[in-house]
Amino acid sequence: MIAIFEKEILLNALIPAMYTVSGKNTLPATEGVHLRCTDENRCYIQTYDLEKGMRTSIECEVEKEGSCIINAQKLLQIVRTMPSGPIKISVDSSYKTVIESGLSHFDIKCLPGSEFPVLPELNSDRGFMFPQHLFRKYINKVLFAIGQNDTRPVFNGAYFEINEEKIIIVSCDGNRLAYLENDMSIESKNIDGTRLNLRFIIPGKTLVEVLKMVKDTEEEMEIRLTRKYVIFKLGAFTLFSKTIDSEYIDYTRILPQSHNIELTLETESLRGALERSSLIIEDRLAGSIRSYVKFTIDEVLSVSTQSANGNVYDEIDIEKIKGDSITIGFNCKFLLDALKACDSGKMKLCFNNPLMGVLIEPQSNDDGKYKYFVMPIRMNN
Residues 277-296: pLDDT tens digits? Predict the structure, then answer.
């Protein structure tokens, strides 16, 4: 294989391709980027970690057709450090690879293209269009509540319900739940012309990679579904990932429908108090439980924390809508993550008792209605 690339074109293709390169060192081919150059003067580029993958194609000058697998990290580093201008990649029959530009020259080894894992069939008859800026905004509002490496698979992803008039996204890691709903017109791309009625779970790790690609513009992305995969089409790039094949939790039973205590306050005031509390909370002390932040609600909201690192106390003005006093404890990080996802100036906090947690609802909901539920911590006293 011999091909000549423009540096910037090759670099712009390799950077997104890195999102789906394996880091587990289980199969050398999955740590590489597969290059296949054809007589059409195109190079087809793909990466695949056996769970998710990326593919695209770019123009190049092909002197000899062929394919190879080059270690992705090494190739990216080499291309980045090459001088501007054409980059020539040559692979001989022993899979010795020469990468050169100007007077710069690298000799490395690669693998035969035939060793690259077979990609799954991605033929799909179901899909929809979605604005990229809304996808970015919505995912950022629920991403914090997705579990990481939880033994319960559904907690490691976000649940989607999609029809032509509404989108619902839910995430839950067992300690907190994020819920987003918006009435909006969604363009169906179902091949048979049927109406949209989709339910699926996308792994959180996949959503993190998609967020790196979507733009904060009204330009739309196409999302398609197969029985086992979700496919994102963004311009020249196609990113695909396994979905989580499991029944999602009944989130409607987790979100309280009625409350004994309701109050409103300034979002930034509570966020600031929690950030100050987080400065002295230790993650774990040998032989002791994790420190918590304590809420005491009466005429004001008192936020206090005691730990081996010190004490902190804050008072926040509130407008109590209804209810009596309550004292309740929380993991400070869980609450702070939820508040960081809020972009409303004011929020409503709803409680029932010290064992049932708090429901957080922004007072203003632009581009959708969202709310968060955070479980409490049982305090020592």
Answer: 988 886 554 444 567 899 99
Residues 6+ apart with CB under 8 A from 324: 260, 261
Q: Check: CB of residue 254 under 8 Å from CB of residue 373.
A: yes
In contact, 70 and 101? CB cutoff 8 Å? no
- What's the rounded Cα separation, in Å, for the pair 241 and 122? 10
Mean pLDDT, the chain, as a whole number? Answer: 92
Enter the tokens of residue 109.
Answer: 């080894």
For the chain, the structural domain boundaries read 2-115, 126-251, 259-374
Q: Which CATH superfamily is domain 126-251 in?
A: DNA Polymerase III, subunit A, domain 2 (3.10.150.10)
Give dist(CA 240, CA 18) in Å, integer.
13
Distance, CA of 336 to CA of 353 (rounded, Å)? 20
Q: What pLDDT is stored for residue 285 in this prediction?
A: 44
User: 2-115 domain in CATH 3.90.930.50?
Assistant: no
Whole-model pTM?
Answer: 0.91
C-alpha span between 346 and 362 (Å, rounded): 6
Look at residues 311, 312, 295, 301 and name the one whose alpha carbon lies nearest to residue 266.
301
Tokens 């040559």, residue?
90
Quick one: fold of 259-374?
DNA Polymerase III; Chain A, domain 2 (3.10.150)
Residue that is written with structure tokens 């587990």 in the block: 24
* Maximum C-alpha span of the chain: 79
pLDDT band at 310 (very low <50, low <70, confident <90, very high): confident
Same fold, 126-251 and 259-374: yes
- Within 13 A of 271's CA, how many CA atoms are on the CB side? 15
In order, the DSSP letters of 177-225 are EEEEEEE----B--TT-PPPEEEEEEEHHHHHHHHHH--SSS-EEEEEE
Residue with tokens 């959708």: 368
Hey, is 147 helix, strand or coil?
coil
How long a stretch of residues is the chain? 381
